[in-house]
Every structure is written in structure tokens, then in C-alpha cells.
Amino acid sequence: MKETLEASAIRPRSRPRSSSWLTYALITTIFWGVWGALIEIPEKAGFPATLGYCVWALTMLIPSFFSLRKDGWKLDTDRKAVISGLTIGFTGAIGQVVLFQALIIGPAYLVFPIISLSPLLTILMSFFLLKERTSTRAWTGIALALVAIVLLSYQPPENGSHGMGWIWLAFFVFAAWGAQAYFMKTANTHMSSASIFFYMTVTGIALIPVALLMTDFNQEINWGLSGPYLAAVIQVLNAVGALSLVFAFRYGKAIIVSPMTNAGAPLITIVLSLVIYATIPHVVIMAGMVLALVAIFLMAES
Hints:
Elements: H1 2-9, H2 20-38, H3 40-44, H4 49-59, H5 61-70, H6 79-105, H7 108-116, H8 118-129, H9 136-152, H10 165-187, H11 193-206, H12 208-213, H13 225-251, H14 254-277, H15 283-300
Helix pairs in contact: 2-13, 2-14, 4-11, 4-13, 5-11, 5-13, 6-10, 6-11, 7-9, 7-10, 8-10, 8-14, 9-14, 9-15, 11-13, 14-15
């Protein structure tokens, strides 16, 4: 009886066909992959990443509007739902803001591999706390995905590290994003996905003043079409991918969804970058691409 109650505690309020989680995970992977390939365009055109965050937070309103409307404007407002929603939102948004600072004082080639392993924390929390289990085939895919994520995040060494404070910031982002995915999974058991995303939107917007304070307005900023307007079009991809991720966690196992999306999105980004910018990936990244493909195949078939 105890095992039955524990199993029901982590079961979504409704469960569509078993392949739904994969559909949502693939939508997230594709949208985030395309977003990753295009996001540097407005930045290179003179629109700072911190202002890009502000635009992203506002674009979250679009999918939030449609998801709430589809749910009949029903918003979960009980204490547990509010706390869960805000926790998910703040862990994600604060992680992004802290990442800005980590990249300012630390080397990107070391920062990104650390934060890229955030799915490992999600997997461990889901395995031990939610008792999620899967097949040997899927575990093989998970292991390969974790290796692929690190390889795909490879950045060439560069100067620019000032002290060691960036390490703590990088691990903070690692913990925040790893925990966010876990909380996203547990929240889906007692509140609607539309409500989760609404609170994610609210918290993202709430941190806009912090991003503005981190922006150097003394530099020349592109306020034209290739600046905030192009950034808005591109950031919508990120926002829609985030909403789809919430649904992927609702219907799928966190130990599968997290590594799959985190390995698949960079893979698409690299392929598109190769086509758009004619950039040949480093051999380390190419190895990660191969592992990511194998990992996604193994996890998708589980």
C-alpha cells in the first residue's frame, strides 16, 4: 500500500499517450537548438546579453497567455502551488543572471562545462527522491548524454579570468538549474503546467531590474530592428521551448527528459551554426555530437 501511495504521489493529474513526453522534449530540443544558433546575432549587432534577458522575460508572456487561455484561465493559487511555481521561476532566472557575472569574471571554457552538468543533479535527485527508474538501455543513453553535454559545451581557452570567485558562481548556476528541473517535475504532480509557466514568467520579469543594473549603458547599444526587435523574435523560441519543457517533465521521467534536451539542443545549434556561419566544429565538439546522437536514440527508444 505504501509503494502504491508513493507511486501515485509522483503521477501527473492526467496522462496522455506514452509518447507525449517525447514530443514535448523534441519540441524543446528543436526550439532551443534554433534559438542557440541565432541568439548571438543581436548580441554581435550591439544588443547586450543582459538586455536580451529583459526581452526574453517579456516574451515569456506570449506562451504563458496561450497556455492559461487553453486551461480556461485557471491559475493554481494555493500556498503550495505559489511556492513551487516561484521556486522554479527563481532558480531558473537567478541562475541566468548569475551566469552573466560568472562569464564576466571567469573563463567561458571552464564555466560552461560546469553548468552543463546540471542534469546530473536532476538525475540524482529524481533517482533518490522520486525513485525514478528506467532500463539499462536508457541508463546507457543518460551516461552518454552527460559526456556529450560536457563535450558540446567546449570553449577554446582564453584569457580573462580574474580570481577564483567565478567557480562558486558557476556551481551556483549548476545547482540552481539542476534543482529547477527537479522541482519542475514534482510541481507537475499538484498543479497545472500552465500555472507553473505563469510563475516562471512572473519571476523572470521580476528580475529585469537586476539585468538592467548589470548593463553597461555607456557602451553604444543597438536599439534598431537588429537589436531588441530581432532579439524578441529569437527569444520567443526560447520561451516556447521552456513551456514545452514543463509539459515534457509532466509526462516523462526527469532522468530522461533533462539529459535528452540538454544534449540535443546544442547538437542542433552546432549543425545550424555550421550551415549559417560556415563554422567547422572543434574535434572535441564533433565527438560530443556523435555521442549526443547515440544518447538521444537510446533514450527515445526507452
